[in-house]
Fold:
Amino acid sequence: MTVQWTRKDLVGLQDLSAGEIELVLDTAKSLQEISLRPIKKVPTLRGRTVANLFFEPSTRTRISFELAEKRLSADTIHVAGSTSSTVKGETLIDTIRNIESLKVDMMVVRHSASGAPHRLARMSDVSVINAGDGINEHPTQALLDMFTIREKKGKLAGLKIAFVGDILHSRVARSNMWGLTRLGAKVIVCGPKTLLPPKVEAFGVEVTTDLKEAIQDADVINLLRIQSERQAQSYFPSIREYANSYQINSEVLKHAKPGLLIMHPGPVNRGIELSSDVMDGPYSVILDQVTNGLAVRMAVLYLLSGVRAKVEKE
Amino acid sequence: MDLLIKEVHVIDPKNKVDSVLDVSIRKGKIAELKKGLEANGSAIIQGKALHLLPGLIDLHVHFREPGFEQKETIVSGAHAALKGGVTAVVTMPNTNPPCDHQSVIDNIIRKAREVPLHIFPSGTISKERAGKELSEMADLKRAGIWAVSDDGNWVEDSLLMRRAMDYAAMLDLLVITHAEDHRLRASGVMNEGLMSTKLGLHGMPNACEDIAVLRDVELARLTGARLHVAHLSTKGALEIVRRAKKEGLAVTCEVTPHHFSLTDELLVHYDTNFKMHPPLRTEEDRAALIEGFRDGTVDAIATDHAPHTEEEKMQEFQDAPPGVIGLETSLAVSLTELYHKKVISLGELVKKMSWRPAEILKLPAGFGEIKVGKSASLALVDLNHEWVVQKEGFISKSKNSCFIGKKLKGRVLATVCDSKLWKWEK
Structure:
């Protein structure tokens, strides 16, 4: 039985079934070649309006969504955190109601508060795409990570996929844990104990503080950005010690499995979580992730617009 | 107002009354309490199949006045209390200005005289609730406070708390602790555990509360002060209180209806009406609290009635202020979860909502009992009336209840307080 997309929103991978995730990935696959054409544009979303609401700074996610929308011929508007009314004391809900009144079809929302897109999705008829909420989820990033792995490995089930770094504050890790475990991958998360979320094993993942154990026989290592301000919050004693314990470099990859993939959602702190030689080396698929992000976001926009069109017809 | 309540089942655990009687109220006092009384000109209320309880006493409410009248006032809070069968409350001192000076207490008491509810204000432990210097507790007591607390701000400085408890012991003032280690809480907005990890929200561990309760219990041992643990929510803190009681320390505790009936699994939609401090905990903690009711470790049920406006609660989960209202639902939730589910008897439940709070506060005779010759504070209750909590039904100025949509069994039909009768629509 083929899976149909019936959701108005994409707020997270927590609720998605394996079939729904595969549908997004398959759709992305079919849209991938649009970006390879000399004229990189299809009329799929012509006449549709997408509002990109970034209440938290973002470069790569924002431009990826923007380009995905343009390639599908959508009209777009942009609201960035500093220029929005939320700093003037207006509630997020009121800001959204204003934008709704402009008759937009979809909203891409990034917000520093976990759960913000979820609440908007429940109160609004507009389709909401979560572009990252607090430390909770970043579903399109996880989907593009899964897409990239599937492209390179041909499958996800049974692969050993390690996440290394600040798992606690990582919405990328959370979305990936939901999605990858649903598709049958073997996930292991690794970092200093202070940066592992409580009871994270309940996601159905393995947990370790030992980098060697995490990366042994790994098919994929997905690195998470380490932020220097965590040192001031006593999550670890120093960036130097962190790098000594958790940096991925050619030394620790000496016994790497052939065909290992090194991934990173970016931006990378070269020389901290990842050494330059590995980042620029043969294992790295970091730039493929960026390219694939476009197709994945086009797929999400396309699938959600289909649900909207159906609702409008009825 | 003279009133005769006919054939009502009177529950007064303090005086061991548990039978169907007629209750005559004259000039605001209980005149007679026996079978077969004549009206003699009194208005008659038929009490058949209903229960009459002593007016409930809530040890922990926020009436927000002065300073936050947009959330609640002494008048609106008093009406919400009466609707819940509550006839006496202890108001928390986190007003603006805070209750750290007798002039603020004078003002509250003057306003309280104008409402038909018994209001027992608490004062702060420290000036401006800042945890640096003691507030003028003796003057505050002369002005009319019954307890001291820095409420949401746990006194971190153990030396200051020791001095405060010595001083309060001298004045025989109850010390109420909102036990929460703020440094350990950090940016936590909900209980730390599986749910906080699933929802991507920062959690605060049980240890925040356990550590704070343990320190305060040890200071109670050192100083001899009467310590009351507000809104206790963890298994560990309950165990600490249990042990303290065994050792004979003057330590008591209250639990809120939301903590003994709800858990953090309800946060799945990031609904800010489930955000409060302490947070909703896990089923393991909730079950421990229920056990605390069974074995008597829990002294009292208090609401921590904490009104916040719609616009404040509209904010994102991490930004919305913590707290929920509770006065209009506390008896109904307690009946539903503790009495109808056979955790404790009706007499025990009534004790925890009236007699025991009166004892903890050292209120004069007449509070928490139904006694001839004493002022009449009463709640007339239908134990079996089923209803669904609706936002529109609240008369509190704020509607931030975590019980909206919940089906409850038991309802207050009328309240008598301060010579007035309030009948409530079903």
The longest strand of chain A covers residues 127-133.
